[in-house]
Specification:
This protein is of the alpha/beta class. It has 3 domains: 4-56 and 86-151 and 274-334, FAD/NAD(P)-binding domain (3-Layer(bba) Sandwich); 163-271, FAD/NAD(P)-binding domain (3-Layer(bba) Sandwich), CATH 3.50.50.60; 348-458, Enolase-like, domain 1. It has 13 helices and 24 strands. Helix 3 (48-68) packs antiparallel against helix 4. It is globular, with a radius of gyration of 24 Å. The structure holds flavin-adenine dinucleotide.
Length: 465
């Protein structure tokens, strides 16, 4: 048994944990980070980056496939298109490798000690772990729990064989013929669309009345339409029951209670993610929980002195950039700086086709909060850049207070709008009013012009629509 001591111990090297450790190291805090799998956590290894890599590859393939078909247009034609998914996965893995190696280098540069292994709590200051037969004890003044989340498994559809989690799906080396996705949240839609564009027949089964039920119907309706155009069958208000006895189909219950069998050689279950709070002695600390999540205050402190928690383990929205922002804040608090969680909004992007971005309040959320609003919208069919990209579906919508025009929320649906998320977030954090966005010169031709036009529309005088 060897003993290590440090001022700050971070458990988990996902975006929350590694950002916390790097910032702490930069500030001169003696820091150790423990990771039982790979540096980069879910996001870099089996989440954000792998999924976006495959979305890009599938988009490229579908463009080439379209050019090879009789409907080739833009004057482009290409001989028969084919995909070697194993090579695509190798390319994706190379990106993951580059990024995770980079995280290792950044931790080293910041003077952070990286320890491999599964940290188990002995008490609020001590963890023990074993790596390659060597047991180590780490004693720390402060501990940050950044253990993330994992896919929820359905008891009647356990992962294995044809039943895939997002992790398995993102490393699959063959395109299934008939894929059924259980769960119409953003992860299921993103991966389902990938396999559809690679040639699979895809059905999405959703228990709620529509896909992405947490977003308003004005945003999700055009997306549903596009899924239909792509040939994806969406079955809402239907519930998966389990595999058929021969394993070649998924039994579902329809809205009216009837049963149906959906032929499937692969089933992807994306019904949610749950925080990683069990199996490493966390229960022994008897922290106050908020449902399944570790409860935190505005400084990410748990109910135990000297123990912080950040990222997915602390609740929604379970997004990498929230985890990173919390990680950075906690490192500064540990280093003695005065910090508190004072973010106005956390953007969320669904990398669906088309992409969907939301920041701040939707019209309904503002209304339910008792705020009188002005809503400005601008459709991409009035935007030249969208036309040149052949994607003029979707729109930008701005929600502002009716009295002083303070922007409360911005939402957009459209191909390429993911890159507008930063501008939306900045507008909210800077307390922009409709007049500020309307008076800002937006470069032409760009999708961003639709944001300026949406602000003008909120003020009652859009120019190009
Ligand atoms: C398919 C998919 C796509 C996604 N796409 C996006 C996206 O586009 N944008 C976005 O913002 N978010 C996305 N997410 C969510 C994002 O990945 C998470 O919000 C983010 O990774 C959370 O970071 P974290 O640091 O809290 O935890 P994680 O990234 O989950 O990292 C936690 C780490 O802790 C380690 N760990 C756990 N317990 C222990 C222990 N006892 N000892 C040592 N190590 C331990 C784990 O091995 C893991 O590496 C996606 C997720 C998935 C699954």
């Amino acid at each position: 048994m060897t003993d290590l001591r440090c001022k700050l111990l971070v458990i988990g090297a996902g975006p929350g944990g590694y950002v916390c450790a790097i910032r702490a190291g930069q500030l001169g805090v003696d820091t150790i980070i423990v990771e039982r799998a790979s540096l980069g956590g879910t996001c870099l290894n089996i989440g954000c980056i792998p999924s976006k890599a495959l979305i890009h590859a599938a988009d490229e393939f579908s463009k080439v496939a379209a050019a090879a078909s009789a409907s080739a247009h833009l004057g482009i034609s290409a001989p028969g298109a084919s995909i070697d998914l194993k090579a695509t996965i190798d390319w994706k893995d190379a990106i993951v490798h580059r990024l995770t190696t980079g995280v290792g280098a950044l931790l080293k540069k910041a003077g952070v000690r990286v320890v491999k292994g599964n940290a188990e709590f002995l008490d609020g200051k001590t963890v023990e772990l074993e790596f390659e037969g060597n047991r180590q004890r780490i004693v720390a003044e402060t501990i940050v729990i950044a253990t993330g989340a994992e896919p929820v498994e359905l008891p009647f559809l356990p992962f294995g064989g044809p039943v895939m989690s997002s992790t398995t799906a993102l490393s699959r080396q063959t395109v299934p013929q008939q894929l059924v996705v259980v769960g119409g949240g953003y992860i299921g839609l993103e991966i389902g669309t990938v396999f559809r564009k690679l040639g699979a027949s895809v059905t999405i089964v959703e228990a709620a009345s529509r896909i992405l039920p947490q977003y308003d119907a004005e945003l999700t309706k055009p997306l549903l339409q596009r899924l239909k155009t792509l040939g994806i069958d969406v079955k809402a208000e239907c519930r998966a029951q389990g595999l058929q006895s021969d394993g070649k189909g998924l039994v579902i219950t329809l809205k009216d209670g009837d049963e149906q069998v959906l032929p499937a050689d692969a089933v992807l279950v994306t019904v949610g993610r749950r925080p990683v709070t069990q199996g490493f002695g966390l229960e022994g600390l008897k922290l106050t929980m908020s449902g399944p999540f570790v409860e935190i205050d505005a400084m990410c402190r748990t109910s135990m002195r000297g123990v912080f928690a950040i990222g997915d383990v602390t609740g929604e929205p379970m997004l990498a950039h929230r985890a990173m922002a919390q990680g950075e804040m906690v490192a500064e608090i540990v280093a003695g700086k005065k910090r508190i969680w004072d973010k106005v909004a956390i953007p969320a992007i669904c990398f669906t086709d088309p992409e969907l971005v939301t920041v701040g309040q939707s019209p309904d959320e503002a209304k339910n909060a008792g705020i009188e609003t002005k809503i400005g919208t601008f459709p991409f069919r009035g935007n030249g850049r969208a036309m040149t990209l052949e994607r003029d579906d979707g729109f930008v919508r701005i929600v502002a207070r009716a009295d002083n025009h303070l922007v409360l929320g911005i939402q957009a649906l459209g191909q390429g709008v993911a890159e507008l998320a930063s501008a939306f977030g900045l507008a909210l954090e800077m307390g922009a009013r409709l007049e500020d966005i309307a008076a800002t010169i937006h470069a032409h031709p760009s999708l961003g012009e639709a944001v300026q036009e949406a602000a003008l529309s909120g003020l009652g005088h859009a120019i190009h629509f």
